[in-house]
Automatic annotation (TrEMBL):
EC annotation from Swiss-Prot or TrEMBL: 3.4.21.-
Similarity comment: Belongs to the peptidase S9A family.
Pfam family, one: Peptidase_S9_N
Molecular function, one GO term: serine-type endopeptidase activity
SUPFAM superfamilies: alpha/beta-Hydrolases, Peptidase/esterase 'gauge' domain
UniProt entry keywords in alphabetical sequence: Cytoplasm, Hydrolase, Protease, Serine protease
Protein name: Prolyl endopeptidase
Gene: Prepl
Length: 679
């Protein structure tokens, strides 16, 4: 209408432009600061690099990638090349099928491999270190492998039949669509399933006997599974059990029965469930087609087979024709539980005390009589073991050229938290170290999403042990080390319990003579930055340095921004401050960014990534600026002679994605730890 005022977005746009300009200026300032500081440590960097390269080459040459056996054929990947060998023929005679470079992806690494049941096709995902998304390439195998299809932005994929592939696509860190593509003479692709709830993430899995492909839609606390019959891959997926808030479940299949791992029932920890007579076969016509009726697979018909003990973590689960293996963790120790479907017995085997991590090897043939896996720790390289179902025992494989570290001592402790809860700690140190209270201590923490601290082997950890460091891993609440309840006790309105746990762990270590505050550094990555940053605010005197990688340190502002890709999904972990005033105040009480104040802070070294989609760089830039200002304000207000001003350094990597695990990062991590110690 004439005379109507036109609304203007000038102020809104001006605000966005001003904010972007501010962040660019902050980034330039931090990059200049880093370029001025890094040459100071050139000699130390060269020494560390030389030592790490030596260790890296030693253990990389003796590492063994997973083998995939299909009948007499064995497939494996080494240095970006796909090999094919004959079983029992020795890998020295293996032939190279193709390499990553052959496919035109020289800067990428192979993330996942899936081979079609008839071995006619191989699907692989390639991922670069600068991106969260992978590209799926389908290769037709033969004398001269041929690229059949290239699918961008793929997360997971599985073969439903010889020439039918299901896959999920990833966009803005979310997977919500499932597609089916065929490689028959009538090639086509169609959408099979779409998840409408932004809190849920969809992935695919193929049951061990390859009878079913499962479409798994999971949030942080709830799940729903749809089944695709691999004998009829073009039929619509069938629902197993409609999602029920707070109930997680996963599906396996054996001899016409579903085996379900679920949190349904009390206590809310994982249990093995069997569904009774879930398949009813009916002759419909002359072709004797079968019809699946899985209505009786609903939770009202679930029968308990096995329940985990209290405070036990289910690490992994593997189904075989007559047995099931569960990899468990209890009070820091690893166990192997073998459930026999023939004798209806359970055998529990305690694994070596030094072991901290499992890694199952691929077993495409569920009828195999042996289960292979690797054990490792931060300072023990992977060692291969096997469990024989026939012999009913654990077999340690041939001694590797690189021996297990013998001069490293592993200690497990329990710290009493504020509410009397006992919190596990795993400690490593050199057996020959004397006067441990004078040795530098590196404390690790995570405590979020029900995920365990990463305790796989890393050359830089071994180097620190050889340099006389003590390594401590604090398994605080919020993580998953003691089961699902351990996570629940440390998320949302319980997040402060994780902080209390961390404080108790560090205090106990010092009381027992493992270093002292002036020689202690705290390390965390991603969401572990919440507890590390919170401790830095509440108890800065407990540590001398803090090392963070892509840290999540502004919980409140992040959870208020629903346009960010993970905000809605992560409300189950942190809460929803937009709709809950109590939640807002609680997050504000521990959020690292919100609680910075003028005081004597430890030195801080942060590694961030320009293109990080999970933890945006602007928040980290603002955190560093605010922290540095608070430390300087404190120093200017106190006239104490010899007043110590911490070094607060940010290294922004132009390449790499969230929590990059590349070789270059190993060098940066040891540099930052030893560099902070020297401040």
């Amino acid at each position: 209408q004439e005379g109507r005022k036109v609304p203007s977005k000038r102020k809104e746009n001006t605000s966005i432009v001003t904010s972007d300009l501010l962040h660019k200026n902050l980034l330039k300032s931090e990059q200049k600061n880093w370029s001025n500081i890094s040459p100071t440590y050139k000699a130390m960097t060269e020494r560390i690099k030389e030592k790490l390269e030596e260790l890296h080459s030693m253990y990389t040459l003796n590492s063994r990638s997973p083998r995939m056996r299909f009948g007499e054929n064995v497939y494996f990947e080494e240095n970006g090349c796909i090999f094919l060998a004959k079983a029992g023929d020795g890998e020295g005679n293996a032939e190279i099928l193709f390499s990553v470079e052959d496919l035109g992806f020289s800067d990428a690494f192979i993330q996942r491999i899936r081979i079609s049941p008839g071995q006619r096709y191989m699907a692989i995902s390639l991922k670069s270190e600068n991106s969260e998304e992978a590209t799926c390439i389908i290769v037709k195998l033969g004398n001269l492998p041929v690229v059949e299809k290239v699918i961008p932005s793929v997360f997971s994929f599985e073969w439903a039949a010889n020439d039918v592939l299901y896959y999920t696509t990833q966009k803005n860190l979310k997977c919500q669509n499932v597609f089916m593509t065929t490689f028959t003479y009538q090639k086509h692709t169609k959408l099979v399933y779409t998840e409408q709830d932004a809190r849920f993430f969809v992935d695919l899995y193929c049951t061990k006997d390859r009878h079913f492909l499962t479409i798994n839609s999971n949030s942080k606390t709830t799940s729903e599974v749809w089944l695709v019959d691999c004998r009829r891959p073009f039929e619509s997926p069938a629902l197993v059990q409609a999602r029920t808030t707070g109930v997680i479940y996963h599906i396996e299949h054996r001899k016409d029965q579903l085996y379900i791992l679920t949190t349904y029932g009390e206590p809310a920890e994982y249990k093995a469930i069997l569904t009774d007579n879930y398949i009813h076969r009916i002759n419909l016509d002359a072709y004797c087609r079968s019809y699946r009726n899985i209505a009786s697979s609903g939770k009202e018909n679930w029968q308990l087979v096995y329940a985990l003990e209290n405070k036990t973590k289910l690490v992994d689960f593997e189904m075989f024709s007559d047995d099931c293996i569960m990899f468990l963790k209890n009070a820091g120790h690893l166990y192997l539980n073998v459930i026999s479907f023939v004798s209806y017995s359970v055998q529990s085997i305690k694994l070596p005390t030094w072991a901290c991590e499992f890694e199952l090897e691929s077993h495409p043939e569920h009828t195999t009589s042996t289960c292979y896996f690797q054990l490792s720790s931060p300072v023990h390289p992977p060692k291969r073991f096997a469990y024989s179902f026939k012999e009913n025992n654990l077999i340690e494989q041939a001694v590797q050229e690189v021996p297990i570290i013998t001069n490293c001592h592993t200690t497990r402790l329990l710290a009493k938290s504020k509410d009397e809860t006992l919190v596990p700690i795993t400690v490593f140190h050199n057996k020959n170290s004397k006067e441990l209270h004078r040795r530098p201590l590196l404390v690790h923490v995570y405590g979020a999403y029900g995920i365990d601290l990463n305790m796989s082997f890393k050359e830089e950890k071994l180097m620190l042990i050889e340099e006389g460091w003590i390594l401590a891993y604090c398994h605080v609440r919020g993580g998953g080390e003691q089961g699902l309840s351990w996570h629940r006790d440390g998320c949302q309105q319980n997040k402060l319990k994780g902080l209390h746990d961390l404080r108790a762990c560090i205090t106990l270590l010092h009381q027992l003579g493992f270093s002292q505050p002036k020689h202690t550094a705290l390390a965390a990555a991603s969401a572990g930055g919440v507890l590390a940053g919170a401790l830095c605010n509440t108890d800065p005197a407990l540590i001398r340095a803090m090392v963070l990688q892509a840290p999540f340190i502004d919980v409140l502002n992040t959870m208020m921004k629903t346009h960010l890709p993970l905000t809605i999904e992560e409300q189950e972990e942190w809460g929803n401050p937009l709709e809950d005033e109590k939640c807002l105040k609680y997050i504000k009480s521990y959020c690292p960014y919100q609680n910075i104040k003028p005081q004597c802070y430890p030195s801080v070294f942060i590694t961030a990534y320009e293109n990080d989609e999970r933890v945006p760089l602007p928040g980290i830039l603002q955190y560093v600026q605010k922290l540095r200002k608070a430390a300087l304000d404190h120093a200017s207000r106190t006239s104490k002679k010899g007043n110590w001003i911490p070094n607060i350094i940010l290294d922004v990597q132009a390449n790499g994605s969230h929590c990059d695990s590349s070789w270059e990062h190993s060098l940066n991590e040891v540099w930052s730890i030893t560099g902070c110690r020297d401040v």
